[in-house]
Write a structure and sequence with these properties.
This protein is of the alpha/beta class. It contains 15 helices and 24 strands. Keywords: FAD, Flavoprotein, Oxidoreductase.
Amino acid sequence: MSQLPLEAYDYLIVGAGPAGCLLANRLSADPGVSVLLIEAGGRDNYPWIHIPVGYLYCIGNPRTDWCYSTEADPGLHGRSLKYPRGRVLGGSSSINGMIYMRGQAADYDGWAAAGNPGWAWRDVLPLFKRSENHFAGASELHGGDGEWRVERQRLSWEILEAFREAAAQNGIASVDDFNGGDNEGCSYFQVNQKRGVRWNASKAFLRDIRQRPNLQVLTGAEAERLELEGSRARALHLRCQGRALRVAARREIILCAGAIGSPALLQRSGIGPRPLLERLGIGVRHELPGVGENLQDHLQLRLIYRVEGVKTLNRIAATPWGKLGMGLEYLLRRSGPLSMAPSQLGAFAKSDPGQARANLQYHVQPLSLERFGEPLHDFPAFTASVCNLRPTSRGSVQIASVDASVAPLIRPNYLSDERDLQVAADAIRLTRRIVAAPALARYRPEEYKPGPQYQSEEDLQRAAGEIGTTIFHPVGTCAMGQGREAVVDARLRVHGIAALRVVDASIMPSITSGNTCSPVLMIAEKAAQMIAADARAAISMVPQREPGCGVSA
């Protein structure tokens, strides 16, 4: 993999996150095409990327994270949130929670019903399976020969077992697998690890193909803008190690920069809402009002409970001996707390009986802290984070400057819809019922956040704004569809611009019911097939010369 780009490639891929890494793998499998994969961050050789608990040292670290922040959010009482996005080979798969989650079949059936043929559950399940390397091997629901390793977690906690039993006592049954199309129930998350080590997209899709002569990976290169020729994308302008570079695309430019980066790059290129582009003096090359709109995210409410008489990570990590023991256990066995995903136990439930399907997701952790990046509390506790899987609030991403080094303005508009406030209040009530169940009684759980003083509907809605924080699932800002607000069609081609696609979480018209990393891989798997099919169709349409019809002097 060379760091020196040629002047032109068949395919330019912007962003080496999950989608970009998979696409680079699939497209370069054809030796007749050339592929350049462009990543603004560096190589994934930072040790904390690979130790699962190292996400604590990757989030908020400019070595691996874009370190974005949201604008002050009225729904969160004016708070601004840190908004992590991976800036390294592997993208957010190098810093995320490693949870393997597809969502619900109805999510994808809804995409198809909204006018996006080929995206129903029956269409996408084979794509999930194609890239999957499941610990149980191939089956009707899982793939066994793919690159994306899925394993069970390598530790258990008494307090989590008790929470699982308490959930069952509240009608949330224990299940074995969240990934069959209906994830309602409670279970331990399956994770993207291999023998206790993080398995990111760079390892999965790039490591074994690095010798392909038709694939080059350029790190430390930020895409500044697209160059258009009429209504066709022709080239990318990059900045790499202080140098300005121009690289042309013979076939297509594919944006895999994520729900923040892809709309920002389009806007800097004059593709987006006219008022924004004119206000910044960019000029409108192609008006697409939906670029940067429709931002959706899962807002998690982090309820914290003090407990007695049970082991939690707070106490284990509080002493030098505890930390030494954790380090030795990981060194010798690749297990123990250092092998932990941020969340171990999950549950999917209905916020009220009137819901047609599970609309809440729990991430339950045997630890507590005020916020990511801060020390653990000095008392034993667990955290039950709960999020609304299908929020109705919508936000936006808008560039603040044509200068790519200036961070965009991220406005999630959490809890701006009354329906989300209702779900939030119901979620807190359900959590309290679970924690009050007999299975947890022996640990004497005491609510630390938000606190028992919040009781009325108004109180609970206010509490949601006080304790709510992102669970790092932004999607939807280059939505797929056919209406005025749509940015790409069902083949992920940008409306009105030839040779330009978006392939990442931004194309989701509505957010999936769970963690979003593996759905992005599915999107890229489908895109790879569509790109190859479109290339074959284009070649078949090129007129062939009749024998004897050469040009004479």
